[in-house]
Amino acid sequence: MDSSDLEKGRARATTSQVTVLYFARLREALGRDAEDLALPADVRTAGALRDLLRNRGGVWETELAAAKPVRIAVNQSMANVNTAIGAGDEIAFFPPVTGG
Amino acid sequence: MSIRVQTEDFEVGAELAAMRGDRAIGAIACFVGLVRDVNDGSAVAELTLEHYPGMTEKALEDIVSQAKERWDIMDVRVIHRVGTLHPTDQIVFVAVAGAHRGEAFAACEFVMDYLKTQAPFWKKEQTPGGERWVDARASDDAAAQRWHAHEAS
Fold first, then answer.
1. Cβ B120–A23 below 8 Å, yes or no?
2. CATH architecture label of A29-100
């Protein structure tokens, strides 16, 4: 492996691959509970990711509409639209919680 | 501190007995939540609880840590059930042990209020009209919010 291969390897490792999870009403409406996604370079916050997903149209547009009370967690901590996201992160979208 | 998320039922007496070793403990306050048979005007035959494994435990640990920072308490136990439950079933258990009842009562209520708004659990009900996801209540947000007001004062 020469140095250019090493460079490519590093580039792959830093590709912004994230895991996105969906729960409860959102999981059912979107028809999936998880997916792996390569983040476009300009998607750096949880809010930008929500916009990206909403742009898929159809049920994504309806369920992730700005008016919908969607909660976000980044790496299993409550987050908000301004929370930074990057390679390897686990980002979850779900409705307001109703336990207890 | 003990935090459990489980499908099985729990025995309140056994949980409280397990908290009694420390001779400095003078009070244990305890809350048990049950499944009701009516919610928002509809009969509820069955309740299914979904959660976010990993984050749920982390969120509950964080809530308990906050309670321990705010009050001089010695032990906290939280049990939350997931899966399918029926009316009269136990769903959640929170117990707080402290030297005196004041801290124990307050911390117990704080943990429940925060659990309701911060821990990733979702309820789905089976009613005569079909399945429905339970909507979050503004009153639960208000209950959690009042602890912030205390902090500010």
1. yes
2. Roll (3.10)
